[in-house]
Amino acid sequence: MTFFIRANRISRHNMRMLTENARILTVMLIVFLFIVQNFSSVLLFSKAVNIPVTPYAFVFLVNDYICQFIIMAGAVMLFSNAPFEDEGYIYMLPRAGRISWAVGQMLYIVKLSLLYIGFLMITTVLPFIGHLQLDTEWGKIWGTLAKTDAGSQYGVGFSISEFMVGKYMPVNALLLSLLLEWACILWLGLLIYFGNKVTNKPLGTMAGIFFTLLDICIANDWMDFAYKGSPVSLAQLETYSGYALKWGIDLNYGIHFFAIGIVLLLVMCLISNNENRMKRYIYLLEKIIRRPEWKRTQR
Q: What is the pLDDT of residue 11?
């Protein structure tokens, strides 16, 4: 019990430091302004036809690859200071212990990813306050924008998929989108932590940037074969249709990808905090890589 109390205190300490971090507040502000600007045209259309909007904007936001890129770039910036070892690290580590410290950092990544998802969800609703309709159906606004060219006439700058409106019930689509988006952000956060911790360099942050850009490449038909290893692409329900199907990718694949990947990354992050064990694994890996090929014995 003491172990978990210490770990939770470490995560809470990191959460309290968020308000003092100008980088994180700046990222939140940029993402907020980007989302509000994108939905301003939808609000304009809604007011023009005098029909309120249902609160499912989040679904279409995360299924547009440009919007998804901005969101995930913001996520990479949130975790870019991993492994979160500030000036208090040398004093807190001996008191907490390595395992409690590591688990505390993992809890912090989970909490920050949930906070970011909650922030995104709230931001997609705020522009429509006063012109919002609570309904279990998509509503006329999203249906019209998905099935007609009304969006281009009013300057809607992101895609509103007819596939989403036709295949999914809005509540199901919203819950699935929230779950996949959170899993992707958590996956990226753990990857960044592990890479930065092991190398003591921003290699993890570079890996996060790579996976964020990979989705752009796939969306532009440069590397569609990379769907199976692109977490940002697999976080979009829109992926599970069209080109991805020929690679055998469906929703079950995406769920298994994130579930297995997150568990493996959690284990790797915990191991990375045991420096002696990590050095041993790195030594064995280098020994395997550098091992000379066996020479054939001559008769």
A: 78
Predicted confidence at residue 245, as pLDDT, reads 72
Rounded distance between C-alpha atoms, residue 28 and residue 13, angstroms: 20
| SS3 assignment for 69-138 | HHHHHHHHHHHCCCCCCCCCHHHHHHHHCHHHHHHHHHHHHHHHHHHHHHHHHHHHHHHHCCCECCCCCC
- Give the per-residue pLDDT at 3: 66
DSSP-assigned letter for residue 295: P
Decide: 182 and 235 in contact? Cβ < 8 Å: no
The pLDDT of residue 91: 59
d(CA 102, CA 99) in angstroms, rounded, equals 5
The pLDDT, as a whole number, for residue 299 is: 44
Using a CB cutoff of 8 Å and minimum separation of 24, what contacts does 268-272 make? 268/190, 268/194, 269/102, 269/105, 269/106, 269/190, 269/193, 269/194, 269/197, 270/99, 270/102, 270/103, 270/106, 272/102, 272/194, 272/197, 272/198
Mapped onto helix, strand or coil, the DSSP state of residue 268 is helix
CA distance linking residue 123 with residue 136, whole number of Å: 20
Amino acid at 25: L
pLDDT value of residue 295: 44
Nearest of 265, 125, 287 to residue 197 by alpha carbon: 265
Burial tier of 213 (Cβ tally within 10 Å: 0-12, 13-18, 19+): middle
Low-confidence ranges of the chain (pLDDT < 50): 276, 293-299
How far apart (Å, rounded) are the C-alpha atoms in residues 183 and 114?
9
Q: What is the pLDDT of residue 293?
A: 47
Cis peptide leading into 83, omega within 30 of 0? yes
